[in-house]
Amino acid sequence: MSTPITFYDIATKPPVEKTCCSPNPWKTRLALNFKNLPYTTKWVPLPDITKVRTSLNMPACRKFADGTDFYTLPIIEDTATNSTIGDSFDIAAYLQRTYPDSGADLFPAQKLDYVFNCGPAAIPLTECRESEYPEYAKFNVNVDAAFTAHVLLAIGRFPFDPATAEVSKAEFVRRAGLSRWEDFNVTGEAREKVKESFREALGGLAKIFKDGGPFVLGNRASYADLIIGGWLRMFHSTMPEGEWEEVRAWHGGLFGRLYDALEVYAKV
């Protein structure tokens, strides 16, 4: 490649390289590193995402329940092929299709029998569109649903950039249909119930891991692991430390081992 790929990620509080924690951009960062592709990062403040996305002629890839557009990241620009892609799953498929011989195979054949059923999500999920990797596409939607259903455990400690924190918090409140930021703070018995639900959801996910992990396929990593890993990066960064250690230990420590095994692809 004559020039690196440009990767658009969401700016958090400085130093952003240590606090970035948005799950879908993390899926893309892990995939870029997994494929051993050179890239540079452009950090976009949360309030500027819509402007940046529209300036790149990238339509919103998701919609809120009321039909309005949800503009979010990641995006990559690859000048080597004059391509711009604006959805984490589509980006991974593009990287594998365009650079099959770089790094490892993101999409080895496997069955991914995990289904998580929940009501409408406050944060719109990627739709399960037609894909050359249908097993992974369905898996992506179900993993997103499982973690999104329990995001109250993490969202209250999101590391907003102080320069844009108030505007960003107001937007999160609007999206969730709440009245104030403090409504995201779940404590006491209510929090324990959410944690137990999260533990059960991860228990269902743990059943698809072969040979005790650390990866879904056992010793071989794939994009399925990066899908989960993007969410684990967020919960690691935003949950209280004691609670994160609980999550790491659940189900025989499987998700702690996965998080650690993906560190090699987590360079920022």
From TrEMBL:
**Residues annotated as transmembrane:** none
Using the record's annotation, list all stretches that form the GST N-terminal domain.
12-103
Q: Which InterPro entries match?
A: Glutathione-S-Trfase_C_sf (IPR036282), Glutathione_S-Trfase_N (IPR004045), GST_UstS-like_C (IPR054416), Thioredoxin-like_sf (IPR036249)
What's the short name of a Pfam family annotated to this entry?
GST_C_7
**Listed CDD domains:** GST_N_etherase_LigE
The molecule here is called Glutathione S-transferase-like protein ustS
